[in-house]
Amino acid sequence: MLLSGSHSHGSAQGPTLARRRPPNIIVLLTDDLGLGDLRAYNPASHIPTPNIDRLAQSGIRFRDAHAPAPICTPSRYSVLTGRYPFRSRLQAGVLYSAYDEPVLEAGLLTLPELLRRNGYATAAVGKWHLGNNFANQAGDGPARAGVGASRFTTRDVDFSKPITDGPLNHGFDYFFGLASALNHDPYTFVENDRVTVLPDSFRPEQVVNGQPLREGWVAPGWDDAAVGERLLDAALAFIRRHVQTRPDTPFFLYYPEVAPHFPHIPPRAIHGHPVKGRGGRDNDDPARSDMIVQIDVILGEILKCLHDPTGSGRPGESIAADTLVILTSDNGAQEGSYARLRAGKGSVYEGGQRVPFIARWPGKIPAGVTSDEIIGLNDMYATFAAAAGAEVPPGAAIDSENVLPALLAQVRHAPVRGPLIVQGASTETLAVRLGRWKLIVKNDAPIELYDLKADLKESVNVLRQNPEVVKRLLAALRDVRRR
Questions:
Q1: DSSP string, 307-375
Q2: Of 3.40.190.10, 3.40.720.10, 2.40.240.10, 3.40.50.300, which CATH number belongs to 3-416?
Q3: Which residue, of 86, 168, 325, 346, is most buried by count of CB atoms within 10 Å of its CB?
Q4: Which of 62-76, 326-340, 412-426 bottoms out in mean pLDDT, i.e. has the lowest?
Q5: What kind of fold does domain 428-483 have according to CATH?
Q6: pTM for this predicted structure
């Protein structure tokens, strides 16, 4: 492992954590944020992100972190299950509707459920996008997309009934957010297993900044631009409520933000911090840049809340030192500067799935460190379990490895994890990463091998020159598939 920065600590045998109790954990999972979007990774970026910059300066920044897939739903599945996307029922693409069959299998021990069993309060705030069972109008089954409408929505739904097989059924004590995504109906918030305001009209598809805002049900008073602030308010309320009611127990907050995924509808301001018009014109898309400013403002407000969760201003009430905060992305950017990487969202090449990953844990993670360890978002499961002192039972999170030593910037002489698998837009495309080497296997297409140390742009296929490497990586891929 390569580390740079002002500090490093720990031992090769793994971390030892002296603390009163397990840490609070907050994961701010952005949507389509690329390495090239952030000054912490791309100094040429003009998008102002002072809070993200400070997060990197006060913690660790990984330069070789990977989403399990280059698209939304499969990556989210892996984050919450510690399993590669190809093990789910979804073998290609994403869920295109809030009314699609849930992807999380019944009985699967999710990350929040494991943490809850070990004393954590668990909450999800933001974009769910893993499927739900809304009731149909007859009350004899779930509403499914395509009934009297497009594949993105349905006319046959009863919003007055509870939602089943949603976040509360998979380990979360509390949920507030969107049933699917910012560009999918129902355009209303869901709290726990109910919509907060009943949709009363069906609006046609709209085009916003050249991108589709899908047709569907909308609640009275709905404001697309206000979604980011409403989600933030729910997250802050959860933190404050927890500190007031359960101050001696840890919490896990999974915060899948809607930005900077389209439609790009930035608010004028969030909590008095200007957003619209602040992002500049990177990639000739100022609205998208503004959505990245939204992420930065949200992060800043969360960090502020950790330092003063009750609003009293008393330093002794800060929970910042007890909280691990992670900023990352579900896949690479759909557009823009990819920081010398090939392709973008939807691609198994590096621009599609190498993502920002910045972590801060005062007193545990040294400040201003960068790491070249290879990690995957699926590793958060085993890593958080280790940080919490929880044991992952046999059969759970079979594709998650404990990378806590790397997170704590401990000096090591061997990689922190074994081969890492990354999926393309379908299970027909898989890549295996081991050290400097990356092997890509596509259905009915030639195998590709890249030496990322010498060729980060993946411009030269070195398959023929390295037959033994190919043999080793194919064997590793087969072993992982057979688990």
A1: HSTTSS--GGG--GGGEEEEEEESS--SSS--TT-S--TT-SSHHHHEEEEEEE-TTTSPTTEEE---E
A2: 3.40.720.10
A3: 325
A4: 326-340
A5: Arylsulfatase, C-terminal domain (3.30.1120)
A6: 0.95
